Amino acid sequence: MEKKLTHFDEKGNAVMVDVSEKKVTVRTAIASGCIHVSPEIMEAVIFGTVKKGDVLGVARIAGIMGVKRTSDLIPLCHPLPILKCSVDFETDRESGVIRAFCMVRTEGKTGVEMEALTGVQTALLTIYDMCKAIDKHMVITDVHLIEKTGGKSGNFRFEEQ
Description:
By secondary structure, this protein is α+β, with helices and mostly antiparallel strands. The chain has one domain (25-150): 2-Layer Sandwich (Alpha-Beta Plaits). It has helices at residues 39-47, 55-68, 70-73, 113-131; strands at residues 25-36, 84-92, 97-108, 139-149, 156-157. A 5-stranded antiparallel sheet has the order 2-3-1-4-5, covered by helices on one side. A hairpin with a 6-residue loop joins strand 4 (139-149) and strand 5 (156-157).
């Protein structure tokens, strides 16, 4: 079965996908990503000594705001009513990694994968912005969809390949 790209018409023009015939279902998506930071940044984040304030608190709000603005940033995304959104973090001091997780839920005709991915990326970029005065050697990696539920295509769970 050949998969075709849904955001192009038969002439190759970019189009917004027509979801008018789809059923409204509960749809969720969870995404994650990492930012690799120096020991100095990790300590400042954990102990709350970054001059700009509570890094993870601000990054959480930024991630939620990113979710809500996804259709303004990604040209062919449908604007969606967000019913639930959470952004959480795990810190691993030994490896110097802060991992962000974003969960988004809606009831609609299209999924929230892009919203979850945008939420994670926005949260990680906010960490970078708030910590760059300490050290600019930060690397954002591994931003990906962990899982999604609902919709015609069914459920998806990321498996390492």
